[in-house]
C-alpha cells in the first residue's frame, strides 16, 4: 500500500513478478485512500487482457477493486492463485537457485565435497522453497 517506502528495485521486482498490473495496484491504493479511480482505464485493461470481459460494475469512488479487475484473464480466483504462483515460481527460481546454491556450497564446503548429491539436493530444495514462498506470498 506504500510502494514509496520500498527500494524502487524491489518494487519493480514485485510488479514484474506478480500477476497484477501496476495500474491496478495503483487503483487499489487509490480506492483504499478514498481517491477516485479511473474506471475507463481499468475497463480498457480488462478488455485487453480478456476480450470477452463484461463491462465493469464499479464507479470512480468504489471502496474495493473486484476480482474481474485483479485477474481478468482468469475468472476463478482459485485458478488464478495457482497460475500466478506457477508463473512467479518460473520467474524467481532461476534467480534464486544460484543465490542460494553458491553460499550453501561455500559455507558447507567439506560436506559439498564429501557428499555433492546431498548438498545439491538440499540447496535445490531450499531454492524451491524460497521461490514457492515468493510465488504464493
Structural class: mainly alpha
Radius of gyration: 20 Å
What string gives the helices and strands in order?
HHHHHHH
Helix content: 55-70%
How many angstroms does the end-to-end distance come to?
A: 15 Å
What does the average pLDDT come to?
A: 87
Q: What's the β-strand tally?
A: 0
Total number of domains? 2
Beta content: under 5%
Provide the low-confidence segments as ranges: none
Largest sheet entry? none
Number of helices: 7
Choose one word for the global shape: elongated
What does this structure look like?
By secondary structure, this protein is mainly alpha-helical. It has 2 domains: 1-75, no CATH class; 76-137, no CATH class. The chain has helices at 8-17, 22-32, 39-49, 67-70, 77-107, 109-114, 116-136. Helix 5 (77-107) packs antiparallel against helix 7. The two termini are 15 Å apart. 12% of the residues are buried.
Key descriptive features of the protein:
0% strand
Topology (SSEs and partners):
Elements: H1 8-17, H2 22-32, H3 39-49, H4 67-70, H5 77-107, H6 109-114, H7 116-136
Helix pairs in contact: 5-7
